[in-house]
Amino acid sequence: MTFTDLYTYLRARFVREDGQTMAEYGVVLAVICLIVIAAFTALFSLIFVMTSGGPGYGTTTLEFFIYEQAFQTGDFGLASTAGVILFLAVAAVGLMQLRFFKGED
Fold first, then answer.
1. Please, are residues 71 and 57 in contact by the beta-carbon 8 Å criterion?
2. Residues of the chain with pLDDT > 90: what percent?
3. Tell me, what's the pLDDT at 78?
4. Alpha-carbon gap, residue 22 to 16, rounded angstroms
5. Is the Cα dihedral 34, 37, 39, 42 positive or negative?
6. Which of 15, 56, 97, 105 is the most exposed place for a label (fewest CB within 10 A)?
7. ∠ at Cα 31 (27, 36), nearest 5°?
8. Positive or negative CA dihedral for 74, 85, 67, 54?
9. What is the pLDDT of residues 42-87, one digit of tens each?
10. Domain boundaries, the chain
11. In this structure, how many other beta carbons lie within 10 angstroms of the beta carbon of residue 35?
């Protein structure tokens, strides 16, 4: 499946019979996505207190991994690299959201 096929499928799913699109929901969906991303980053304190990333890295998130590498093992290089990767991932998701929810005004 290509991106064009996916776009065509999504457009067919979100266009009402009278021709109106669901573009008015775009801002709401973008805000919901940002809130969900913020909620996942807030899991750090819960993981740190409850499980410390265990058993066997089963509950480790990228934020907890960065903290663990920097302050528990002292590997600041790996921690900063993981931080840059996290930043790039969040920036990519944000740019995709801006492009997807831009609307057809």
1. no
2. 15
3. 93
4. 8
5. negative
6. 105
7. 150
8. negative
9. 777 777 777 776 677 777 778 888 888 999 899 999 999 999 998 8
10. 24-100
11. 10
